[in-house]
Write a structure and sequence with these properties.
The complex is a heterodimer. By secondary structure, chain A is an all-alpha fold. Chain A has twelve helices and no strands. Chain A has one domain (12-306). Chain A is globular, with a radius of gyration of 19 Å. Chain A starts with a helix and ends with a helix. Chain B has a five-stranded parallel beta sheet. The longest helix of chain B has 17 residues, at 123-139. Chain B is globular and about 45 Å long. Classes of the chains: A mainly alpha, B alpha/beta. At the A-B interface, helix 3 and helix 9 of A face helix 1 of B.
Chain lengths: 309, 144
Amino acid sequence: MAKIILQYLVFPGVAFSFFIGAMGFWLERKLTARFQYRIGPPWYQNFIDVAKLFFKEALMPRGATKTIFIASPIINLSAVILVSIILANNYFLNISFVGDVIVILYLLIIPSLFTILGALSSKNPLALVGAARETKLMLAYEFVFITSLIIAIIKSGNSIMMADITTMQVLNGPNIASASGIIALLLSIFYAQAKLCIVPFDMAEAEQEIMAGTVIEYSGPLLGFYKISKLMLYFSLPLFIISLFIRIHAESAFLRYLIFFAIYLLIIFIMSVIKNINPRMRIKDALGFFWFRLFPLGILGIILALLGL
Amino acid sequence: MKLKEKLLTKSLWVYHLSAGSCNNCDIEILDCLTPRFDIERFGIQLVGSIRHADVLLITGAMNKKSAKILKTLYEQAPKPLFVAAVGICPCSQNLFKGSYPMLSALDEIVPVNVYIPGCPPRPEAIIAGLAKLINKINTDRRHK
């Protein structure tokens, strides 16, 4: 019993994913700083930022719908905690259940959904703009991510279980070794970029334009919950991508962890390169990019996967 | 509460209000974020919303219109909030003192924690001012 609780709360559950996510986000900030010839924040910066928010006052905007305003960051965080527990337990301990791919897909939609609801409940016009943008963006990226998920499912012999996807990759080599796998990886990296609100797709939280958009009215602990869930997503989304497409098997545990962290760093690096060489897209361009560029690519990937490529 | 101040001083999030300035001080504030000065290495960040802010950075002489906005912003911010006056205009109203759109000095509207004079202050001076603010928060724990 104690072991299970430890698995869920410490390793590879909540504490571990929060720590790695915070380090991943720090790495992204540091890389961004280095790209701009700056020095960048120290490694513990994200922990301090989050901890500080819990000592600040939480304000309630006048006219806000109280229950939803308070509940949405908490539901947001709990969905992210659930998804990171499921994913990390699957990756590190091979614990899986039937249909967990679908569960993860649903749980990953909840953070965006409740960000939108929280923004709408605050009755701030700029938050409203942010929520509208997030809704449109969600329509774009979820659509594309499902195609890349379908590719992984086809590759695993039509199974919607993470364990089967893993076993298939351990037996036949990782999915990325095929043409459709590369396409799916590309799509899912763009999905992660949009989900995490990183620059080409950060129009929902555009700080310079609509003053932090969806989270504009949040302060203190409530903002802290948002920050924690974002940091944990920094771990969970790359982990999801890795376990779907780049699951490389090694005999010794040490080597397995080494491979995982190497790939994780690589994904963070790719995402921060995309962030630093692109300006923020307009919402129209982002929709066009996802629907008319990436979605046909996804269909092509599905066809290739069905052909066994 | 020592921990609270320690955390706060290591991650000051700054909200920048231009209360009728000539833009020189605003440019100098942006200079602090550039590679040469890079205040992000101290954890200082510019934020978009006042609800996230720890420091309210004010540039420009207060006129009647911006004083109203300043008051609203101060009330909207989560406490503890520190106010920094950047440039000679918010510090002493400079040559605008006594002219028709001016209401009163900045510290008669909101309490000011640190003054950074200069026209405009150099980025070094702004960083020195923020360092003074950090020292002040760490030593004087009676502020709330």
